[in-house]
Amino acid sequence: MIEISDLTVRFGGVTPIDGVSLRFPGGTCGLIGPNGAGKTTLFNVLSGFVSPTSGSVRAFGDDLLAMPHYRRARWGLRRTFQTEQAIEALSVFDNVAMVHEHTGGRRSRRRREVLDAIGLVGLEVDPGELVGTLGARERRLVEIARAVVGEPRVVLLDEPAAGLPEEETEHLGRMIRRIPGERGALVVLVDHDMSLVSACCEITAVLDFGHLIASGPTPEVLRDERVRRAYLGTEEEL
Ligand SMILES: Nc1ncnc2c1ncn2[C@@H]1O[C@H](COP(=O)(O)OP(=O)(O)OP(=O)(O)O)[C@@H](O)[C@H]1O
Ligand SMILES: [Mg+2]
Question: In sequence order, what are the beta bridge partners of 133?
Answer without folding.
Answer: none
